[in-house]
Amino acid sequence: MNLVLSSFPGIDMLGRAFEEHGFCVVRGPDVLWGGDIREFHPPAGVFQGIVGGPPCQCFSRLAHMVRYNGYEPKFGNLIPEFERVCREAAPAWWLMEEVPGAPLPIVEGYAAWSCLLDNRQLGEAQRRVRRWTFGVPGSRYRVLQIETVALEAMEFEYAATGGSARPIAVGGTGKPNKFRDGKGAMPWNAKSATAFTELCRKQGLPADFDLPAMTVEAKCKAVGNGVPMAMGRAVARAVREAIGGES
Fold first, then answer.
1. CA gyration radius, the chain
2. What element of type H or E holds 94?
3. pLDDT per residue over 31-76, tens digit each?
4. d(Cα 95, Cα 113) in Å, to the nearest integer?
5. 81 Cβ partners below 8 Å, 6+ apart?
6. DSSP assignment string, 30-65
7. Which domains, ranges and CATH numbers included, belong to the chain?
8. What is the spatial distance between Cα 118 and Cα 128, in angstroms, rounded to a whole number?
């Protein structure tokens, strides 16, 4: 059995996908649960793999809108923390998920292969592009053979986000003070139960999925920030094959 450390787990939709493919996942600290990755030091030689997606707000294409309104993204660049955890744990492989514009991770002693993957390449309606970087020890990288579909789905949906709202500039100020969904059809209320149900559907979670300890707004943020289940499963399957078959 492959023991995997999930860093920056959140509600760990990526970890769930790896569990479905036979991996045993241990979840590291996360700010969502009061943890701090900067204070975490994993033991060396215990974990066969490390997966994680450091916060992407500062690399997002929407970051300029946050700064336009006088704020800074809540989290800075925590990719160096992912690199540090990998160095300390010394796993047989590691996998990082990020937005396309984020810098590639560099871990001494590991060769890394990277690709962009759109959720629609897996036959899903939701468009959500993420960069995946897979590292193994040595000087030669290993390619993940991620299985995709020949034709994308005819249906199209914009990427789910923490609020799943797309800002529309209105009024004389030009500031994004109204929100509509990806199709521009209905006002979006991140506090409604319907919004949470729709986010779960987009992200591939079961209809009865719930986070009972959270407000609906917090639930929407947690699910919207996660890796779509279809994408997580496809990548987990590719990792399993790359490291030598069944876990």
1. 18
2. strand 93-98
3. 999 999 999 999 999 999 999 999 977 666 555 555 555 555 566 7
4. 10
5. 7, 37, 38, 54
6. -GGGT--GGG--PPTTS-SEEEE----GGGSTTHHH
7. 3-149+227-242 (3.40.50.150), 162-224 (no CATH)
8. 5
